[in-house]
Amino acid sequence: MGIGTSVNRVKAFEWYEKAAFGGSVAAQCNCGNCLLEGRGVKENVRNAYIWYRKAAKSRYHKAQHMLGYCHEYGVGTLLDIHQAIIWDRRALKNGNVEAKTSLDHIFTFSAFVEF
Fold first, then answer.
1. Could you name the CATH architecture of 9-109?
2. What is the pLDDT of residues 9-28, one digit of tens each?
């Protein structure tokens, strides 16, 4: 349920998008989330990746972590474990604790990482 109103995911995406184009890195990341999951907008993983990248370049740790996720699993971009590590390390450095779990997973289970 929305705060003071009913949930309207389409309208929510429209507002996120307006704020994202206005430069809000949190809104850029939220646009990525909506596009990744098809919430209020048709699913489009390539555009989700683009929004995450835009916010990640502005050092927004949540977007940096999501960019790491995209590279780790090839979502909206080519699978690239080394880029996943780079972005998750940046996210961790900027305070994203979920990035630590992702890095642990990569280093434990990935056959692509050279030690």
1. Alpha Horseshoe (1.25)
2. 999 999 999 999 999 999 99
